[in-house]
């Protein structure tokens, strides 16, 4: 019987998706089966090349070596990309920006800065032993390698490993030239890679002789000289074509370390190095031992350079930086002649004043360094002492703006008060304890004078009075006036500002005090009068500068001169008084006696003197009224002899008419009295030079007009006249 609840359903046919799935499965199966059979076939074929044992080790090493070589080449190419850019630019390194010859205010040469170079000497005119000395010492295989001396590098590596230090270099002359032309002297792996690529580039673009010529012209030879031609002229006073074998050996020895082996720096080291060069020439087969014997027995002797030792080197360094700024837009020349403002007589005595005081009393006060700047009231620098010994330290303490002026800053405070119109030198103010917050300044003697005048307060260098004045005028106007008068570096405006807790330089202090000396006008220190090219074209002339701006009123200047004159006659600066000269100034001593100053002026000159130690260690209670004031007085007494003494408005002094020095030229204390010799004015000196040039031109023209034939004819006529024919 059929179940009444049963319903028969029809079975669906296989869908398209099932058929696709079956096709996919079978296809994948067939693919992997084929892949397996292919791999098996490949394995069977490669099994025929299977290497085992020692041969497998060699092949593995070769394979890894090629892999690392490829990686290294990619890395070296990446590092060498800057070299490609350098060659693409077509520009070489500048040896130095400028070549400058400096003259003093009278037109006499006092020194040079920048480069000395001469690339006009052809390679074929050089002495053969000059070339041999360079090749024997720097690159014996120069004409055999492709720019990189693999043999030389290997030999140097072995030598250095044996010595356990770098005693021999492996760079070829081409590599050294690449460094000179394109790179710096930093010792890095990256630079060596660049050097190698550039050496290859040079070898493909220049001949061997051209590379050697460039090397001789661009190598630094010490003393500011680039190239052997300039070095020969500088060290031996002759052209490179005329140098001897001994001199050529000394020049060739400079390639390795020009500063160390420069003959004017260490003659013994230079001669020892030259002896090594002669040995190298014998070992390289260029000369025999007999041929170098004479050069060994009579080593080269450089010309004397005492005039450069006596040059005002601190001033020249400072002036050179100024020249670079003034000629920055000059494109037609890199060689200049600079007329400076320096007075060689005053410069010499300024150096002697500082050094003699230090020799006599420096040890007692535990002070080792000093600096001094002398200006005329218009800002012209007449002398600059940047330290006691330029040979030991080229750090210029006269221009370094990192010393606190102490109480020598107080005139800025008093000048601000007088400029306000509410104060005068006779204004009475209280000298009593004062506090600003938790800061309570005290006087040097830890005592107070009560009610005093401004003149008396500045004369005695009282501390509380300028602090009270700063509260009245504001500290901002004091800082502004200090900047207007000549303090160039920035400093924080703090409550201790009136007591000189700032940083400044000796030259800025001298410039600032010049405002009091010249009647209230800004007097920025300058050391350059005129700059011309070697062809005589004027690049800069100080006379074309705009007139100075007025900083202080005449009334303020008169008041400040009155007060600062009192400092010298009856205050802390009594040791700076110069009889018969209206001297004025201010002492300065900083906290813990680290700095001692005297800044002063007359109608003729302004000078700032500083003493201290480079490491900022404290002195033995040295104050500005001691060594700085003594140095200032010693210099000014000399500088004001045999000149017209100019008056100082507001400064009370007694003029000494026609001073007569003792016949013995000594004082009552048997001290030698030095007097400045009378000198010509710059204009008079210039006229004498022009007259001398005219006579030289006339003499030259006369010699040119009289040739040998005319000379013989004139002699014959004279003989005939004498004989009566």
Brief account:
The protein is α+β, with helices and mostly antiparallel strands and 725 residues long.
Q: Any descriptors?
A:
725 residues; alpha+beta; 5-stranded mixed β-sheet; 5-stranded antiparallel β-sheet; 14 strands; extended; disordered C terminus; carboxypeptidase; peptidoglycan glycosyltransferase; transmembrane helix; Beta-lactam/transpept-like; hydrolase
Strand content: 5-15%
Number of helices: 24
**Averaging pLDDT over every residue, what do you get?**
84
Helix/strand-derived class? Answer: alpha+beta
Q: Strands of the biggest beta sheet: in what spatial order?
A: 2-1-5-10-11
> What fraction, in percent, of the residue positions are helical?
40-55%
CA-CA gap between termini: 187 Å
Query: Which stretches are poorly predicted, pLDDT < 50 over at least 5 residues?
Result: 658-671, 706-716, 718-725
Radius of gyration of CA atoms, rounded to a whole number: 40 Å
Overall 3D form: extended
Biggest beta sheet summary: 5 strands, mixed
In total, how many beta strands? 14
Please explain how this structure is put together.
Mean pLDDT is 84; it is low at 658-671, 706-716 and 718-725. 46% of the residues lie in helices and 10% in strands. The chain has helices spanning 16-46, 54-89, 128-138, 150-163, 173-182, 189-205, 208-218, 228-236, 245-252, 258-261, 267-283, 289-297, 306-309, 313-326, 344-361, 410-419, 454-459, 464-473, 475-485, 506-517, 554-570, 627-639, 682-705, 708-723; strands at residues 99-103, 109-114, 116-117, 225-226, 335-340, 369-375, 381-385, 428-431, 450-453, 528-533, 538-541, 584-589, 595-601, 606-612. The radius of gyration is 40 Å and the shape is extended. A 5-stranded mixed β-sheet has the order 2-1-5-10-11, covered by helices on one side. The protein has 24 helices and 14 strands. α3 crosses α11, α9 (245-252) packs across α11 and α16 (410-419) packs across α18 (464-473). With 725 residues, it is an alpha+beta fold. The longest helix has 36 residues, at 54-89. Its EC number is 2.4.99.28. Residues 655-684, 706-725 are annotated as: Disordered. Pathway: Cell wall biogenesis; peptidoglycan biosynthesis. The chain crosses the membrane at residues 65-85. Residues 370-604 form the Penicillin-binding protein transpeptidase domain.
């Amino acid at each position: 019987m059929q179940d009444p609840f049963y319903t028969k359903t029809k079975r669906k046919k296989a869908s398209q998706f099932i058929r696709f799935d079956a096709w996919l499965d079978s296809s994948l199966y067939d693919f992997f089966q084929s892949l397996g059979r292919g791999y098996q076939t490949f394995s069977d074929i490669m099994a025929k090349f299977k290497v085992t044992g020692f041969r497998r080790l060699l092949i593995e090493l070769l394979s890894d070596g090629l892999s690392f070589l490829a990686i290294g080449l990619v890395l070296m190419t990446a590092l060498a990309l800057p070299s490609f850019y350098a060659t693409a630019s077509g520009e070489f390194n500048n040896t130095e920006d400028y070549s400058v010859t400096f003259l003093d205010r009278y037109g006499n040469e006092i020194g040079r800065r920048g480069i000395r170079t001469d690339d006009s000497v052809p390679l074929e005119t050089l002495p053969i032993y000059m070339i041999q000395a360079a090749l024997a010492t720097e690159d014996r295989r120069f004409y055999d390698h492709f720019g990189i001396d693999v043999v030389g590098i290997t030999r140097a590596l072995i030598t250095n490993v044996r010595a356990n230090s770098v005693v021999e270099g492996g760079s070829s002359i081409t590599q050294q030239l690449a460094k000179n032309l394109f790179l710096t002297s930093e010792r890095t792996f990256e630079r060596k890679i660049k050097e190698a690529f550039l050496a290859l580039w040079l070898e493909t673009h220049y001949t061997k002789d051209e590379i050697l010529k460039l090397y001789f012209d661009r190598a630094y030879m010490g003393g500011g000289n680039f190239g052997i031609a300039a070095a020969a002229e500088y060290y031996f006073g002759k052209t490179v074509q005329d140098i001897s074998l001994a001199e050529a050996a000394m020049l060739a020895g400079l390639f390795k370390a020009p500063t160390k082996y420069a003959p004017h720096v260490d003659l013994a080291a230079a001669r020892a190095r030259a002896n090594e060069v002669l040995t190298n020439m014998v070992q390289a087969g260029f000369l025999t031992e007999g041929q170098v014997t004479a050069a060994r027995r009579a080593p080269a002797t450089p010309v004397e350079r005492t005039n450069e030792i006596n040059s005002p080197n601190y001033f020249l360094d400072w002036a050179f930086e100024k020249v670079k700024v003034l000629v920055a837009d000059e494109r037609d020349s890199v060689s200049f002649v600079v007329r400076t403002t320096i007075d060689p007589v005053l410069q010499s005595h300024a150096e002697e004043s500082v050094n003699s005081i230090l020799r006599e009393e420096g040890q007692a006060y535990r002070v080792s360094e000093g600096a001094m700047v002398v200006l005329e009231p218009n800002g012209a620098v007449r002398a600059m002492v940047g330290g006691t010994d330029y040979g030991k330290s080229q750090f210029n303490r006269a221009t370094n703006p990192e010393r606190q002026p102490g109480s020598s800053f107080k005139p800025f405070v008093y000048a601000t008060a007088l400029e306000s119109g509410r104060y005068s030198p006779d204004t009475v103010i209280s000298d009593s304890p004062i506090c600003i917050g938790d800061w309570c300044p005290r006087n040097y003697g830890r005592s107070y004078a009560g009610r005093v005048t401004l003149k008396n307060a500045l004369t005695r260098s009282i501390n509380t009075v300028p602090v009270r004045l700063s509260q009245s005028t504001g500290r901002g106007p004091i800082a502004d006036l200090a900047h207007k008068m000549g303090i160039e570096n920035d400093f924080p405006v703090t409550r201790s500002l009136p007591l000189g807790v700032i940083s400044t330089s000796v030259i800025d202090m001298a410039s600032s005090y010049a405002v009091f000396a010249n009647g209230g006008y800004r007097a920025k220190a300058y050391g350059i009068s005129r700059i011309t090219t070697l062809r005589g074209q004027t690049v800069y002339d100080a006379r074309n500068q705009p007139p100075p701006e007025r900083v202080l009123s005449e009334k303020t200047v008169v008041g400040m001169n009155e007060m600062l004159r009192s400092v010298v006659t009856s205050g802390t600066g009594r040791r700076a008084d110069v009889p018969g000269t209206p001297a004025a100034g201010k002492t300065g001593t900083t906290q813990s006696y680290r700095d001692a100053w005297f800044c002063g002026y007359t109608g003729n000159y302004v000078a700032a003197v500083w003493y201290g130690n480079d490491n900022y260690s404290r002195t033995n209670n040295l104050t500005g009224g001691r060594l700085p004031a003594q140095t200032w007085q010693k210099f000014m007494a000399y500088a004001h002899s045999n000149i017209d003494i100019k008056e100082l408005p507001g400064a009370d002094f007694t003029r000494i008419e026609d001073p007569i020095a003792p016949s013995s030229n000594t004082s009552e204390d048997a001290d030698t009295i030095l007097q400045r010799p009378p000198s010509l004015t710059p204009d008079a000196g210039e006229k004498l030079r022009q007259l001398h040039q005219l006579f030289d031109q006339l003499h030259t023209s006369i010699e040119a007009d009289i040739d040998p034939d005319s000379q013989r004819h004139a002699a014959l006529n004279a003989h005939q006249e004498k004989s009566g024919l």
